[in-house]
Specification:
Blueprint lengths: L11 H28 L4 H9 L17 H15 L1 H20 L2 H8 L6 E15 L2 E11 L5 E11 L6 E8 L4 E3 L14 E11 L3 E3 L16 H4 L1 H20 L4 E2 L2 E2 L4 H33 L6 H28 L10 H12 L8 H12 L6
Parallel strand pairs: 1-3
Antiparallel strand pairs: 1-2, 2-6, 3-4, 4-7, 5-6, 8-9
Helix pairs in contact: 1-3, 3-4, 3-7, 3-8, 4-5, 4-7, 7-8, 7-9, 7-10, 8-9, 9-10, 9-11
């Protein structure tokens, strides 16, 4: 796209509208969370409510009805969703932003087929290039197995990373999108301790024909439509999930701690000076982690709006900010869980669910220990992120 193309259509009013939709839906998400965890997937009624609130198109280009809030707006909305229900936030973010990638980077035919013909379809899958593809007349033939396809029970499409064996050159990497009916889902593959309600099952593709146009280059595709946020590297856009999600989860944990009334032999735990001190300290640390994520998101938004290049240090900062937010959130939620005493052990208590979901999220490759190493390396040597 031209460097003079208009920026994303993010406005404070649009962000406020999305946040209001989350607030209205919050009681329903809170009420449904425990049952969804037991079921290992969001309830169909919950997904329908998220669609009705237009949250399943959060990451879509405006041409298909997406709000295009910019990273700052997206971070605010995902944080609010995670504060209400961590699993719903995870599924909506992945499912809508995968759809947004198709809308922005795949052919017009593919974008219209995926986003234009249904009722706010979710796009599950995994972008890591774990499959193989070969070129044939009319497209690609793809095979492979992928794990952690969050929300696949409710998805109409799957987006999958593949290495393409090129006939006249070195292999290339691409994302392919195919109907869910082309995937073989392993229904028994999801038995986990955290993010259980996301239903992130494994799936495979067996010699599936992917028509021309239903794929795009990865990890830095060319924007074909949508606002300039889609000019940002996908590695930068991932900040929306891994920076915002832990902040929302930590906020929920601290809110639960605020409501603590567990009786002790000497009174109520919330009356202890040590509790109040720690509550203040963790509130401050979560706010500081949020400020870092917001600062990085604002820098990226500014570069998107001005067609500026995202340098290796800012990419590394985005990943490190996400790791830092996750670290702080896990520690804050662990503290909140410990203040709950035996009550937090109950399956019905939100603190144990939030803590386990955060621990699961902390295992994602984007927020592993390499995050800090990459930032240190780029500051010392100028080397940018490689994954």
């Amino acid at each position: 796209m031209s460097a003079t193309a208009p920026p994303a259509t993010s406005t404070s009013t649009a962000t406020a509208t999305a946040l209001a939709a989350v607030a209205k839906l919050r009681p329903r998400l809170v009420e449904a969370a425990a049952d969804a965890e037991v079921a290992g997937t969001l309830a169909p009624a919950t997904v329908a409510a998220l669609r009705d609130a237009r949250l399943c198109r959060l990451g879509w280009p405006a041409a298909f009805g997406g709000p295009e809030l910019g990273l700052l707006g997206d971070v605010a909305v995902v944080e609010a969703l995670a504060e209400a229900d961590t699993a719903a936030a995870w599924v909506v973010t992945i499912g809508s932003f995968h759809g947004g990638f198709v809308g922005a980077y795949a052919s017009a035919v593919a974008a219209e087929r995926v986003l234009g013909g249904g009722r706010d379809p979710l796009v599950a899958g995994q972008v890591a290039p774990l499959g193989r593809g070969r070129r044939v007349e009319g497209g690609l033939v793809v095979s492979g197995s992928w794990s952690f396809a969050s929300g696949i029970d409710h998805a109409a499409w799957v987006l999958s990373g593949v290495v393409i064996d090129e006939p006249d050159g070195p292999p290339t990497v691409a994302e392919v999108v195919v109907p869910i009916t082309a995937a073989v889902v392993d229904e028994a593959s999801w038995d986990v301790a955290g993010l259980a309600a996301t239903g992130s099952k494994e799936y495979r593709l067996d010699d599936v024909l992917v028509p021309d146009g239903f794929s795009f280059a990865f990890p830095e595709p060319v924007r074909l439509r949508g606002g300039t946020t889609f000019d940002l590297p996908i590695r930068a856009q991932i900040l929306v999930l891994h920076g915002a999600f832990p902040l929302g989860a930590a906020s929920r944990a601290l809110d639960e701690a605020l409501a603590e009334t567990r009786p002790l032999s000497t009174g109520i735990v919330a009356d202890r000076g040590s509790f109040r001190r720690d509550l203040g300290a963790w509130t401050t640390r979560v706010a500081a982690a949020r400020a870092l994520v917001v600062d990085v998101a604002a820098q990226l938004d500014d570069l998107a709006a001005t067609a500026g290049a995202v340098g290796p240090e800012l990419l590394a900062q985005a990943r490190a900010a996400s790791r830092h937010a996750t670290d702080v959130a896990v520690d804050a939620t662990t503290w909140a869980f410990r203040t709950s005493g035996g009550g937090g052990l109950q399956r019905s208590h939100p603190l144990q669910r939030v803590l386990r979901d955060l621990l699961a999220a902390s295992q994602h490759a984007f927020v592993d220990e390499v995050a800090y190493e990459q930032l240190g390396s780029v500051r010392l040597d100028g080397d940018g992120p490689t994954a």
